Amino acid sequence: MTDSERDRRRRQLDAWGGATRTLAPVPGRERIGERLARLSEQGAQVYDFGDWTDQYGSEDGVVGELERRTAAALGMEAAAFFPTGTMAQQVALRCWAGRTGNDTVALHPLAHPLVCERDALQLLAGLRVVRPTAEPRMPTAAEVRDTDEPFGTLMLELPLREAGFVLPTWDELTATVEAAREREAVVHFDGARLWETVTHFGQPLPAVASLADTVYVSFYKSLGGLSGAALAGPSTLIEEAVAWRHRYGGQLFQQWPAALAALAGLDLELPRLPEYVRHAATVAGALHEALAGSGLPWWRVWPRVPHTHQFQVWLPYEAEELTEAGVRQAEETGTVLFRRWSRPPGAPPGTASAEVTVAGPGLSWSAEDVRAAVAEFLEIHASAAPSGS
Known about the structure:
The protein is α/β, with parallel strands linked by helices. It has 15 helices and 13 strands. The strands form 3 sheets. It has a 7-stranded mixed sheet with strand order 2-8-7-6-5-3-4, sandwiched between helices. The chain has a 4-stranded antiparallel sheet with strand order 9-10-13-12. Strands 1-11 form a two-stranded parallel sheet.
């Protein structure tokens, strides 16, 4: 990172972190003292500070408590804490490959292992990949049945982030899982954001998780933890996964701060997620109305009604200038509506998308607040955009 890039990044963090109005906290971005104070305050509400610090994830410490609580929340026999979701999913998929005798995994080309993990499934785990569909949604039951190669595991990312945090209907999901069972495949859920799917599905969390043989969940993406993930499933597979966790270098000496933050997320943030999902529909609707009346030649809010508390906004401008407009809005007005914009792979030049998350701070935003923030953002962008944009 060059000095100019570092200065630009610092300016963004100062602007977003210093804003007085935002839809959600900046993920993982707090001043160190603030984060330590919050961990101390919230941790004391969920775990006995008189207990000893954890070493190597001992069963009688905070990591063990987190594993038991996670398994119970998901309705699974057991769970194991992992430092990253990338590690947890590689371990899960290679364990299933050994048990099924088939090293082929069926998953979406937009799924996290193919987009964000540098081919780790193939290079580290030696697994092959087939893609039941390339459509920006979860594969259908028919597509799973018609996949022209055998596979041992079907992996479903719920929600599918890169496609706009989209989910199938409950009936579609159960049919797709059943299609995999018909092919004698096991099912693994990439549930990094599984926590917030229950409102869309109309089902409790254990009912959603029970459709899969194993589930991975993240503790920081929606629950506000420091880091870390869990793999949950049958106790015999989790025992095997723990052995692979050690081989992968995931048996850290002390993980209690991350585990403590995760317990706080389970107790304090998880119960609020349905409220965030409901209010995201209000925010997305107001964004749609504001952009519809803006005179822009093209734009999109996707999904039109969010499936979770996160969704995408697309605009016909370059990502860098839109990010700059958002930083200026935070600096000049104290309001953060959008943060970082990007041009997704395959999108034409002059188009960009941003992810919008609605969490605790966003619950105070009315539809009129959102419309006013959109108008302000577009005005700031227009005042600074290059000629011809």
